[in-house]
Design brief:
Distance between the termini of chain A: 43 Å
Structural class of chain B: mainly alpha
Order of helices and strands of chain A: HHEEEHHHEHHHHHEHHEEEEEEEH
Strand order of the largest sheet of chain A: 4-5-1-6-7-2-8
Largest interface: A-B, 89 and 84 residues
Strand content of chain B: under 5%
Structural class of chain A: alpha/beta
Radius of gyration of chain A: 23 Å
Strand order of the largest sheet of chain B: 1-8
Distance between the termini of chain B: 50 Å
Largest sheet of chain B: 2 strands, antiparallel
Largest sheet of chain A: 7 strands, mixed
Radius of gyration of chain B: 26 Å
Low-confidence stretches of chain A: 1-33
Oligomer: heterodimer
Helix content of chain B: 40-55%
Number of strands of chain B: 8
Number of helices of chain B: 24
Shape of chain A: globular
Chain lengths: ~500, ~550
């Protein structure tokens, strides 16, 4: 990378004032160490949701949904029990994508490089800034690590895939953050044996030994840095910062050791190393087991305070899970079929293929339900549930199967320890913007001159800013500063 | 379907068209060489030298060189985050918490194994002298060069101190645990030697830095003793000597494996293993046949590169590497062999790498083949003109034909979809290329009909009509743009980065050298290894 790391951060609008923790919303102060911490989970499907089924609904017998009288979207029915904890958002777009002069290499890359970053791309394949999860994790640890892992990124999938490598999370340097897929690997990372053996004489000897090892390698790195040019030195600094963080992180997490689950929770996964020969049904079962275990592992990680920031990338549910067979409805795969039933003017409107895709989405939302139930089942020291101390953001890299990044069907679940007023449907203002060469300029066009297209909703950057503040990270902006207009006041209690 | 309204993004292909390299644009394809615009090529210089990290494969080989003979066990390491491109591309080498955790765990694993044996140690006396020897020798193995004085002092002091309290072998294991996590080991730092002659604005790499570049490029592992000795003797600075070593290394089987690695990544062969084809329609596509197909393509590439006119042969040679399982894919009689054997393929059915069943299968999915993916592969990998991204609102699905429309074949369906809307702007070039492969089904088997209809293999290359894949192969063979793209791909592979700015001059010169050598891959590799881009880095 050809830029200075710190210059890059400055370029992102993260001013020196914004880099530290400051008082949270409403004039509060940074929470005391012994308070139950607030956690955040980004539930991040790859596929968006089907138009016509993704929108919050009016109550039975009513024509329109209102802020307080509404039902969850058809596709969110599996998590309807949690409606009282929700804020359903309408009218929000990934504005950064629409205004970015550098298009994504393809629609999926466009989505994942902008959905969680709210930033313009560095090039057609690369994000131009950090994702919101990494921003929050970075600032929570501004004064040093507070949890064993700064953040956790896991994928629900039936098998390993190159697509899981770049799942939509980007580090403070704008590099993709890898997602973990294998539950054993996730478990070992979250709960290493050193955590389980903490306090023993052997562990103390290991601690002294690794301290000496670290001092040596840190000294060697310093020797090298002095000889390198600017660009190579910046990379070494970035690496050694991460390495130093690891040293500090390893000393954390012991106080909640009782919440560390035993390795027996991994039993359903088995030890199978290869997955090339699975039948469609076995692939479906594997995906579901992956969803179950990710729910348990993520909830355990939060409960043990191994991390406070998690992103779950939801890989597409295999065909067998929703009863689809390639070739049905004239499509040779789910990807093709979802395109055909999506968008404002879908090619296919027959009920059967639409129902197939609806079922596909429902399986993924049922997986989200597993997570919410796991969070609700764990009790925190104050007697409330872990879910009471967690914000789950149902988001994603696409709005729907047409690759749209507008009209995001995003929902926030959790009141952020009383900071959000939940149980509500929030319809944010949309506006028209003047275009130049087809690219949005951001200049607002009077409503009477609106046409069919080019409506622009509230930038998701504002949601990210609101979430960051709720987590105690009071930034000036997130992503492109000119797109971030401020906290979404309507969400606040 | 909405109209794509991001004109700025649509302008990208038009800008490319102005310089004559856009798909569907006339001008560059043919004998006229591609010359970079606006760059002074009198003295090509590198545009960048980002800090490269060892790939997982290189990491394992490098660890083994630090503790030779020690059983390493499992060493997990996160690889490139890029979906495509070469595995060493610095763009996919972000630093993450996961990365440093894995490196830490790996270092502990190796240190633990190293503590259990002593064969890797230069000496085993429990003395300060031996402790210093261990520090200097093992340190130099890890850093792939003699240690700087301050580095040596620190490592020696550490060894003396830890030996005194723990004994020599445990201290040495701790040393290894630290060394394997130093940036000197994990990355390929390049300080350079400003005292040496170098083009304006650049710094010459040191002999040891050149040895490291050359070795990881050609063998994917640290320098061997011959190369280390040559570096120590200052013999690599002269291009002739660097060339001699490059030629020596190219004779080694490890270089052949590097060419395999290049071909695998250049042509995205990983997709051969992940392509999801309907199992009821294609039961013969088992994990074993996928492995066979990949080995067959790699064997073909090695064979083609050994033929006169190497690069041209890659596109036109009519040899197939077949065993009994693959015979139906190639449409030949089973050779009665489990091993792959060379077979001459029918003249009118196949020619070159693009008609290899492995490649044709890798671009298929679901129920059938994908002319679109086949077209994109040629444009992106062979011609280096990746199609512009599809508009964000566009529907990617191929529409089903109305009943009674007479639309039967895959080609007809695609033409129906892409010919009637704004897709045609880009898809003329993509589909025009992909349709030339219509004589091959989803597994790359030759055919004359699809669903009872004769296949139509006519297509186009930059507006020029093309009869079929064999005609396309003939046109690609020896074409300047194909040579330039091939040189570009090797540039990226060798330097672990994308070309930019003044690199265009270097790539252009490499393409010239490739042509001058009649498409000889070895000559291209040697030219790369001795090029200014390889020997110098930009000055700060």
């Amino acid at each position: 990378m050809s830029f200075d790391r710190r210059d890059f951060l400055r370029g992102l609008g993260l001013s020196a004032a914004a880099l530290g923790l400051r008082p949270i919303l409403g004039g509060g102060s940074v929470r005391a160490d012994d308070a139950v911490p607030l956690r955040i989970v980004f539930w991040y499907p790859a596929s968006g949701l089907l138009n016509g089924f993704a929108e919050p609904r009016p109550l039975e017998g009513r024509d329109v949904a209102t802020e307080t009288e509404w039902r969850v979207a058809n596709l969110l029915e599996p998590i309807a029990d949690y409606q009282d904890r929700m804020i359903a958002l309408e009218g929000m777009d990934v504005v950064a994508d629409r205004r970015d002069p550098i298009g994504g290499k393809n629609a999926h890359i466009a989505g994942r490089t902008s959905a969680l970053t709210g930033a313009f791309r560095r090039d057609p394949e690369s994000a131009g800034g950090p994702s919101i999860d990494q921003v929050i994790a970075h600032h929570l640890a501004a004064d040093g690590p507070i949890t064993r892992l700064p953040s956790l990124e896991v994928a629900i999938a039936e098998r390993e895939s190159p697509r899981l490598r770049d799942g939509g999370c980007y580090s403070m340097s704008g590099d993709p953050v890898p997602f973990l897929f294998d539950p054993h690997t996730i478990y070992d990372r979250l709960f290493p044996s050193s955590l389980r053996d903490e306090g023993s004489a052997e562990e103390e000897a290991r601690r002294v030994r690794r301290g000496a090892v670290f001092e040596l390698l840190r000294g060697q790195a310093e020797r090298l840095k002095g000889r390198l040019g600017t660009e190579q030195r910046a990379k070494v600094e970035e690496h050694m910062d991460a390495r130093a963080d690891l040293e500090r992180r390893l000393g954390l997490g012991g106080s909640r050791r009782a919440n560390v689950p035993g390795p027996e929770i991994l039993a359903p996964w088995g030890e199978v190393a290869t997955d090339r020969d699975r039948t469609p049904e076995e692939k479906g079962e594997r995906w579901w087991t992956s969803a179950e275990l990710s729910g348990k592992l993520v909830a355990s990680a939060l409960h043990a305070d191994a991390t406070r920031v998690v992103t779950i990338r939801v890989g597409s549910a295999p065909d067998a899970l929703f009863g689809y067979t390639p070739g049905q409805y004239g499509s040779d795969n789910t990807h093709d079929l979802v395109h055909k039933v999506s968008g404002d003017s879908p090619d296919l409107t027959d009920p059967d293929p639409v129902e197939a895709i609806r079922q596909w989405h429902l399986r993924e939302v049922e997986a989200c339900r597993l997570l919410l139930d796991e969070l609700a089942a764990r009790t925190e020291p104050d007697g409330r549930s872990l879910l009471d101390h967690t914000v789950v953001v149902y988001c994603g890299q696409l709005a729907n199967g047409s690759h749209d990044l507008t009209r995001l069907p995003w929902t926030v679940i959790g009141d952020a320890q009383g900071r959000f007023r939940t149980g509500r449907l929030l319809t944010l203002d949309r506006h028209m913007t003047r275009d130049l060469w087809g690219l949005s300029t951001g200049d607002v066009v009077p409503r009477e001159r609106w046409g069919k297209y080019h409506q622009e909703g509230r930038a998701q950057n504002d949601l990210f800013l609101t979430l960051a503040h709720a987590m105690g990270v009071e930034l000036d902006s997130v992503g492109e500063p000119e797109l971030c207009t401020g906290v979404i006041e309507e969400m606040l209690a | 379907m909405t109209v794509h309204h991001s004109a700025a993004r649509l302008l990208a292909p038009c800008v490319l068209a102005l310089v004559g390299i856009a798909p569907g644009c006339k001008g560059s394809f043919g004998p006229e060489p591609l010359r970079p615009n606006g760059v002074d090529c009198a003295q090509p210089t590198p545009s960048a030298a980002p800090l490269r990290r060892l790939t997982p494969e290189q990491y394992r080989a490098s660890v083994a060189s630090v503790v030779p003979g020690v059983e390493l066990g499992e060493l997990d390491l996160v690889g490139s985050s890029l979906e495509s491109g070469f595995d060493n591309d610095v763009r996919g080498q972000g630093v993450s918490a996961l990365l440093v955790e894995q490196l830490d765990v790996n270092a502990q694993t190796v240190a633990s194994a190293a503590a259990a044996e002593t064969g890797w140690l230069p000496c085993t006396d429990d003395t300060d002298a031996c402790a210093r020897t261990v520090a200097l020798e093992v340190g130099a193995r890890a850093y792939r060069r003699p240690l700087a004085e301050d580095e040596a002092d620190d490592l020696s002091a550490f060894m003396e101190r830890e030996r005194a309290s723990r004994g020599l072998v445990p201290a040495a294991a701790m040393l290894v645990e630290a060394l394997l996590q130093t940036p000197q080991f994990l990355y390929l730092p390049e300080v350079g030697d400003p005292s040496r002659e170098a083009p304006l604005g650049t710094v010459a790499l040191t002999d040891h830095e050149l040895a490291v570049r050359l070795s990881y490029f050609l063998w994917n592992e640290p320098p061997d003793s011959t190369l280390r000795e040559a570096a120590a003797a200052g013999e690599l600075t002269a291009p002739e000597q660097l060339e001699a070593h490059a030629r020596r290394m190219l004779e080694d089987p490890r270089a052949a494996r590097t060419i395999d690695r290049f071909v695998r990544q250049w042509l995205h062969l990983e997709r051969l293993h992940s392509a999801e084809l309907d199992e009821s329609l294609y039961p013969e596509l088992t994990p074993e046949t996928r492995d066979d197909l990949e080995r067959s393509l790699l064997a073909f590439a090695r064979h083609a590169f050994g033929q006169p006119g190497g690069l041209s042969a890659l596109y036109t040679d009519r040899t197939g590497f077949v065993n009994d399982r693959l015979a139906p894919f190639f449409g030949v009689s089973p050779p009665g062999s489990e091993e792959l054997v060379p077979v001459e393929l029918p003249d009118d059915e196949r020619a070159g790498v693009l008609t290899q069943p492995a490649l044709l299968t890798s671009t298929s999915h679901g129920l059938t083949h994908s002319p679109i993916l086949r077209g994109v592969l040629v444009l992106d990998s062979v011609l280096c003109v990746p199609p512009p991204p599809p508009p964000p609102e566009i529907l990617a699905a191929i529409e089903d034909p109305p009943e009674g429309s007479g639309v039967v074949t895959t080609r007809q369906k695609i033409e129906q979809t892409h010919g009637t809307n704004e897709c045609s702007h880009c898809h003329e070039a993509i589909d025009g290329m992909g349709f030339t492969f219509e004589a091959y089904d989803a597994l790359g088997r030759y055919r004359t009909h699809e669903h009872g209809e004769p296949v139509d293999t006519s297509g186009q290359l930059r507006g020029m009509p093309v009869e079929n894949a064999l005609d396309l192969a003939d046109r690609l063979a020896g074409a300047r743009d194909v040579e330039a793209c091939f040189a570009t791909q090797w540039f990226r592979f060798a330097l672990a980065r994308q070309e930019r700015g003044a690199d265009a001059c270097q790539v252009d010169a490499l393409a010239d050298q490739l042509r001058a050598s009649d498409g000889d891959l070895r000559e291209l590799v040697v030219a790369l290894a001795t090029s200014p881009s390889f020997r110098f880095r930009p000055a700060d």
